[in-house]
Amino acid sequence: MIREARPEDEARLRAIQTNALDEPWPELLGVGIDGPPLVLVLDIGEPVGYALVVPDHPVAYLAEFAIAPERQGQGLGTALMDGVLDRLRTGGFETVRLTARANDQRVRSFYDGFGFSVADELPDHYDDGDGVLLVRDL
Asked: Distance between CA 92 and CA 69 in Å, rounded?
């Protein structure tokens, strides 16, 4: 089930954030749980992943997307992304943007599978390298 985050999710989401993301944004997650931004949770008896979306109608920026490391490779990221895209589409958004590491082929392949394409290159975007801006119309 994909649902909006609740205050009682915060400890579990922070653990996922810390363990799954190289450069997490803890302050934004804390604010997002109370919204806006929007935090959508993939819950299969407990939260196993989340997407943090910053809305700027008609564009949504996917600031964080994380699945608990021990649950990766089970199709949960696909389920969460499908839910996020459906939610944004029904919410009247027209475009989704996100950034990714330019050299992370696993992540890039994941987003490519959902129709995201490179809109811009972002030199030195991350502490340890370049990024890309990925965009997808809804």
From this structure: 32
